[in-house]
Amino acid sequence: MPAHIVSKDGFRRLIQTLDKRYQLPSRTHFTRFAIPEMYEKCKAGVEHELKQVKYFATTTDMWSSRTMEPYMSLTVHYVNDNFEMK
User: Fold this and answer.
1) What's the rounded Cα separation, in Å, for the pair 46 and 43?
2) DSSP bridge pairs for 60
3) 3-class DSSP assignment, residue 86
4) Which PANTHER family does the protein's record reference (predicted)?
5) What number is the average pLDDT over the span 36-45?
6) 3-state DSSP assignment of residue 29
């Protein structure tokens, strides 16, 4: 979901309908603080997981949306010490 959604009247009305007391943070809050913080936590978690793995396989895919927005994905697969596929 794009960060500018929090500026849209429809989204703001939806949030107010769900909880009138909730103060929706600004778009700037999400782009400068919330999203970078989530990114760093996620990155640290992935790094921690992969440091414990001796071997892994990767897959990649690239595509574009109907509006020609480019996307790329990277997937990592491995089996942990308990033989669980991750």
Assistant:
1) 5
2) 74
3) coil
4) ZINC FINGER BED DOMAIN-CONTAINING PROTEIN 1-LIKE, ZINC FINGER BED DOMAIN-CONTAINING PROTEIN 4
5) 97
6) helix
- Helix (H, G, I), strand (E, B), or coil: what is residue 66? coil
Instruction: Say if residues 78 and 59 touch (Cβ distance below 8 Å).
Output: no
Number of domains in the chain: 1
pTM of the predicted model as reported, rounded to 2 decimal places: 0.69
The closest alpha carbon to 6, from 23, 24, 18, belongs to 24
Q: Is 38 domain-assigned? A: yes
- The answer to the question of residue 82 being in a domain is no
- Identify the band that residue 1 occupies on the pLDDT scale cut at 50, 70 and 90: confident
**Confidence band of 56 (pLDDT split at 50, 70, 90):** very high
Sign of dihedral through CA atoms 24, 22, 36, 61?
negative
